[in-house]
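Q: Got a minute? One more chain.
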Amino acid sequence: PPPCSPQQALRAPYGSMAAPGAAALVQYVVLRGDLARPPLSWPLGAVVAQACHAALAAVHTHRQHPDTGAYLELGGAMRSVVLEAPDEAALVALAETLKQHDIDHEVWTEQPEDVATCLALRPYPKERVHQHLKKFKLLK
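A: Always. Here it is, folded:
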């Protein structure tokens, strides 16, 4: 067989996992807005890293789910929505709500500080999870 492109090689493990309606999938990431503001004043790069860690943790943990595979198959068409939680208490409360409704997610806890900084859902159809996230605004 002819050699495949790097893009094809990356997609290969997920090729059989595509779910119908994959274009409607979205990964929600909820980041604490207070991290970048005083008194915490984390550097922008450190804040962005929290979102990256959470998103990757959610995708890795739920990598066998058909929606995760279908989402990764979208490549450059993947859709992510980054929302803002005002503080750690709001993030922890959201995590509890998601747990109660059996919504797969991962909370990123920064170490050694042991501080919950970000939460990411595995990719979901928007209509399945949006109701639990609508009180959070887009991160600005």
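A: The mean pLDDT is 89.
Q: Perfect, thanks.
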